[in-house]
Amino acid sequence: MHFPKSFYPLFLLAVLAGSCNTQAFFQNPMHGLTNSYKAMPLKSDSIGPAFYAHGSVLAGFSNDRLQDDVIAVQGGLHNTHQFGNFQAYYGVNGSLGNYRVSSGYNNPDRGILTGFNSNLDDSLLNALSGNYRFGSWGLSGGLNIVTDFPGGGEWRILGLELDWQQEWGNYYRFRKNLPKSAANVIDDRRHYAIISLSSDIIIKVDEIRFGYKTAMSFSTRKLNYYSDGGMAYSRVWPFTLSQTLHVGGKRSTWFGQLNVGYQVVAVQAGLCYRLK
After folding, report:
1. Mean pLDDT of the region 100-107
2. Contacts of 214 (CB under 8 A, 6+ apart)
3. Which domains are seen in the chain, by residue range?
4. How far apart are alpha carbons 157 and 72 in whole angstroms?
């Protein structure tokens, strides 16, 4: 069967329009907010166990087309240890924030030139739009394989980190009460955990340390992606790629971090301070 050539532009337009339909993704608010930078002494500092306080502010965007706003503050305490070519840390942390569910969802009727999402209840989501509070408390820990440079810098060649959070607040209740047919992805659990692989290189100039860290984080569980009125679904595995620049001395370390991942983009700035 042959179609007239004049039909091809119309067909292409229909395909593009159908692929750009409105969707909705409501994930745990800690997605893209976890894995903030944790400072450690250098091997050349010859410091034993060290104790740090850290805090940061964060702003980001989430959901389809990054239409939801997220702001948060985080803080915590962590211990560090050095033993040979290994470093380790463990600590506690918490967060407070606001998640704004945007309005303006639309679910046009099925047609050749319109997108259609059978797993979107636009009237419900628009009615429930607004600001929702969230908070969390959690535990984190990590282990690095490290080698030092002449002059005092070092390369934390490979790091393995785990971060676990328990969420509270009315944004959790918002997600918990949504029917499966209201959005494509709904994470209705309050526990959130990630596993991260990282590499961190630090250059020491006099007593100033300049560093760059990259990390890839994966949620410890997959989420259901619904595509047919809450009936048919596939599985997605949320991830985040983090890029961090940090600078400091023996006690204080300032950092800026960019997190880009599955339906989320966030920037973070903070300080780690060695208490002893």
Report:
1. 87
2. 198, 199, 200, 241, 242, 243, 244
3. 7-274 (2.40.128)
4. 30
